[in-house]
Write a structure and sequence with these properties.
alpha/beta, 7-stranded antiparallel beta sheet, 26 helices, 21 strands, elongated
């Protein structure tokens, strides 16, 4: 077999199905979207009650059907629209691999790889399928598969597992298992068999709530019909109409739709801003973030570096070292290579390069073993060790200016497999580099400060360097710094994490521990990163954000990817998340008011043997204008308030005063109406007026503070309700009221305001956490 495949061999494997296609499709199919919006439990309930109303000759009470159909069509339209945008974005930004075919290097999407393809791997690459190294040497991290953070050296003939990533080194590898047969794919299949994907707290809470309501609807409906038909002697038509009115109020038909569609629209908005979400729940999680962990390079500063000064006298030696180490190894080496580019290499006593030791985040140095000498370049403290004191003052002078300092020296010995330096290092000079601070960094961190988000800067650089850069962009308490390399145990690490803002000389494993320490302290942690050294922390953070220009492994493990690698997009992403969650809490309480009220009223009517006080058309009238219309409009308004508490608890707490006010008012209306011998039509009309007033009072409460948009929404809801109540009386079963009826309705509407305020204060004290 040739070392690489020919185009004909690739085509043959594609025909045989030996491709690296994913385990699961990237999104729902069109048919799945249509099914998901039409064939639901609540739509089945709507269908049953529609058939019952037709059977008892009460077609006027089918006014809820247009709303149900509209809900389904809106859901389908928005999901299809979002699918188109998000799928296009995923295709454009799907992971790619460099493969050799027909003797030429090509870049293809990983799902286009086939069995026996030869791929090139370098530092930062995630291994796309199981493979065997055919040349070269790499250190890989398999922590995403095994949980063990150790770097494992892999040489020719060694097996590479898909899902692991290259920490340093380069190699050629032949794919041995692709698609569903690869190690990572089997893990994914097993995980999917054991549990479904994680949901956001909002969707998880709504699923629980809808299950409870779904369980209650059927028995309450059966009891309502039985009570009316068998015990009160009502006609089948009246019994069905009363049951339907109660059930319509209990069904949270728009709540789940509102939540899922709002999240989809949010993902679509972010996609247009070049922000890709790997997990939908990350929108909500980002909104709840109170601690943001950032690296210096790629976040506060741009990735590109430049050398500003050096004390190295033998530039030719430095150039030969850089040439042997490989310019493309990392941004630091590229910057040094650029600096020495114009220097001519004079004859040196180094000899030929024998072995290369790529930069490692753990050991913080690069090395090249020549036949005559071994040269190293890296962090002064890590390379010089006990001799660091002799250059400490000089290093700190440059670090305080915000420069990154590297030491270049000759290692007196041979570097073994452990990579640990034990011999002396002869100093050849210092190299000072800088990253350009991003122009938008200060404004971005000002936003997080104003939003109450604490920023922690965790970097592999010298803490003095990082601290100086952090001060320049206005990060609060940037003067509180610590050197993680001097930490002796986890207890000490925990102490400095909670007390300090800037942590330097942090290893990848320490970054992971820092995230976990903050989480144990009750923080919701977002982690941003772009390098291989960030992968472990990104994996464990509540929400992980990667720059698209960074290491492939970081991009694949992150929940959110900034496609333009622009950290200034972060305020936009957080603001979008807060808008979604705050507005869903606000709009969600409108639906819950109706559900709680209807369940309590249905139970009371069964227990005390009175007819449900409103008709299905009247329930549709009030809920349409005080819930349906305002909920979708309010969900689109900007809202940047910090998220606190549990979603379901929050909306129930806000909804309870209005629900109980409705129950008290309508029960009182029923009793007073019986005393004054009002007709069933008059009582239901008064109840509709009072319930509409309560809906508007609650809408006014959740809309505060009012602005032009919210005032407009309130005005539309009020005008729509009054227009239908007065102008479409026959359609909605609104009866003409005499003087007594008008006085009872006026008294009921006035009383609702006082009852609502009293219950809001009382329940607020009881239910406040």
């Amino acid at each position: 077999m040739e070392e690489w495949l020919t185009s004909e061999e690739v085509a043959e494997r594609e025909r045989s199905g030996l491709t690296n296609g994913g385990v699961e499709s990237p999104s729902k199919s069109v048919w799945q979207i249509i099914q998901g919006n039409i064939f639901t439990f609540f739509n089945l309930i709507f269908l049953i009650i529609a058939i019952l109303l037709i059977l008892v000759d009460s077609p006027r009470d089918l006014t809820f059907l247009p709303i149900v159909i509209a809900n389904a069509l809106i859901g389908i339209f928005q999901e299809l629209r979002a699918k188109k945008v998000l799928d296009e974005l995923k295709v454009l930004n799907s992971p790619k691999a460099t493969v050799i075919r027909d003797g030429k290097e090509q870049v293809v999407r990983v799902e286009k790889l086939v069995m026996d393809d030869v791929i090139l791997l370098k530092a930062g690459d995630q291994i796309p399928a199981d493979a065997e190294i055919i040349s070269g040497e790499v250190a890989v991290n398999e922590s995403l598969l095994t949980g063990e953070p150790d770097e494992i050296i892999k040489k020719t003939g060694a097996e590479l597992l898909s899902g692991s990533f290259v920490v340093y080194g380069n190699c050629r590898a032949r794919l041995t298992k692709v698609g569903r047969e690869s190690y990572a794919a089997k893990l994914t299949i097993r995980a999917r068999a054991e549990k479904t994907g994680e949901q956001s707290e909002i969707m998880r809470s709504l699923n629980r709530y809808i299950k409870v309501v779904g369980v209650l609807i059927i028995p309450i409906g059966v009891l309502m019909f039985s009570q009316q038909y068998f015990f009160q002697g009502a006609t089948a038509q009246n019994a069905v109409v009363a049951m339907v009115a109660a059930i319509l109020g209990m069904i949270p038909e728009g709540l789940f739709l509102l939540s899922s569609v709002t999240l989809l629209i949010s993902a679509m908005r972010l996609a247009r801003e070049q922000v890709m979400l790997h997990e939908m729940k990350s929108i909500e999680t980002l909104a709840r973030v109170d601690t943001l962990c950032v690296d210096k390079t790629g976040t506060i500063t741009s990735e590109k570096m430049k050398v500003v000064e050096t004390t190295v006298e033998e530039i030719g030696v430095l150039k030969k070292f850089v040439k042997a180490a490989g310019v493309a190894e990392n941004a630091t080496m590229a910057a040094v290579a650029e600096f020495v580019k114009g220097t001519k290499i004079k004859k040196t006593t180094l000899g030929k390069s024998v072995k290369i030791f790529p930069f490692s985040s753990r050991y913080k140095y690069s090395g090249v073993e020549f036949t005559e000498k071994t040269l190293v370049m890296g962090a002064p403290e890590m390379v010089m060790r006990e001799e660091f004191g002799s250059i400490q003052e000089e290093c700190e002078k440059w670090s305080r200016k915000g420069y990154r300092v590297l030491v270049f020296g000759e290692y007196q010995g041979k570097i073994d497999e452990s990579r640990k330096l034990t011999g002396e290092v002869k100093l050849l000079g210092l190299i000072m580099l800088e990253n350009e601070i991003r122009k938008t960094a200060a404004e971005t961190f000002r936003y997080f400060r104003e939003q109450g988000v604490e920023v922690k800067v965790i970097s592999g650089d010298n803490p003095a360097t990082v601290g100086e850069v952090a001060k320049k962009v206005g990060i609060q308490h940037a003067g509180k710094m610590a050197d993680a390399s001097k930490v002796t145990d986890d207890e000490e690490l925990e102490k400095i994490v909670m007390e300090k803002t800037v942590l330097g000389r942090v290893t990848p494993e320490q970054k992971r521990k820092i995230v976990k320490i903050l989480q144990r302290a009750g923080r919701t942690v977002a982690m941003t990163g772009d390098g291989v050294n960030d992968v472990l922390a990104l994996k464990d953070a509540d929400c992980s954000v990667a720059m698209a220009s960074g290491a492939q492994a970081a991009v694949q493990v992150a929940q959110v990817v900034l496609l333009e690698s622009d950290f200034s997009k972060m305020p936009e992403v957080v603001a979008e998340g807060r808008r979604v969650v705050n507005n869903l809490e606000r709009s969600g309480s409108l639906f819950v008011v109706k559900n709680i009220f209807s369940i309590i009223m249905a139970i009371l009517s069964i227990m005390f043997m009175f007819s449900y006080p409103m008709l299905p058309t009247q329930v549709s009238l009030v809920t349409g204008w005080t819930i349906g219309v305002p909920s979708f409009l309010l969900a689109q308004i900007p809202n940047r308030k910090l998220i606190k508490g549990n979603f379901l608890r929050n909306i129930i707490t806000v909804a309870l005063p209005a629900s109980i006010t409705g129950v008290i008012t309508l029960v009182a209306v029923v009793i007073i109406g019986k005393i004054f011998q009002l007709s069933a039509g008059e009582i239901s009309t008064i109840c509709t007026g009072c319930w509409g007033a309560i809906g508007l009072i609650h809408l006014a409460r959740i809309s505060r503070p009012f602005d032009i948009l919210k005032s407009g929404i309130f005005a539309i809801s009020t005008a729509g309700l009054l227009t239908c109540f007065i102008g479409l009386k026959r359609w909605f079963g609104i009866a003409e009221l005499g003087m007594v009826g008008l006085e009872i309705m006026a008294g009921g509407i006035l009383a609702t305001g006082g009852i609502y305020i009293m219950l809001k204060r009382t329940l607020g004290k009881i239910l406040s956490p």
